[in-house]
Here is the input.
Amino acid sequence: MNGHDGVPHVRMERLNGVALVTLSSPETGNALGVEMAESLLARVQEAAGDRETRSVLLTAEGRFFCVGGDVRAIGQAGEDVGSLLDRITAPLHAAISILLHMDKPLVVAVNGPVAGGGLGLAAVGDIVLASETAHFSMAYVGIGFSPDGGSSWLLPRLIGLRKTQELALTNRRLTSAEAVELGLVTRSVVGADLARDAQDVAEALAKGPVGAFAATRRLLLAAGVNTPEAQMGMEASSVRMQAEGLEGREGVAAFLGKRPPDFVST
Here is the structure.
């Protein structure tokens, strides 16, 4: 879907095996309204289903990565606020679920401040690079809301329950450096280098064994609910499948032949 000026709320471009998905409503701080959430879902579905795409890079345009929900629209909804929030959270949560479960690695480039539902989008990446000027806050209790966007599931896994409790209940803002220290972000980079560094990471992943990446993503997601024995059983089945497949055969042959592996052609 497009904004009032005809510009898409979320754009998608393809380059060197990477689907670049960009939140493109800088005049609103990339706030999550109905149109933004629906546009995000459409682009994420497109990227996840595209056979030519081997990795996905999510970023945003403008000063902010995402300021969270469109509070102005929420305030204007009156008695229809519940219905409005359903129309936002349903596509937003569907998009985050796809990003979590798709068979492609996800890089997130956080170009600026993040709050509320934007935090789930930032945290969902396998590798998250953040501008040194970015900062992170849950922000919900400041307007009397509770978390959405998957943050109540993602943050305890990434930074632990105790720290998540503090951030959720006090609205404490994390700097980019603090987010790295806690494990919310992979690396903090100079803002001018962010787009290039993130694209380099995404392209490197696109050249890698995407089947192995997909299997690894599934294992890591399952680790929080499986028993050790169930997890090891899943590992055994997964590594056997990879070893028997084209990627595993190419990887071993390249190792023994002392040459770089060619996973793109497998």
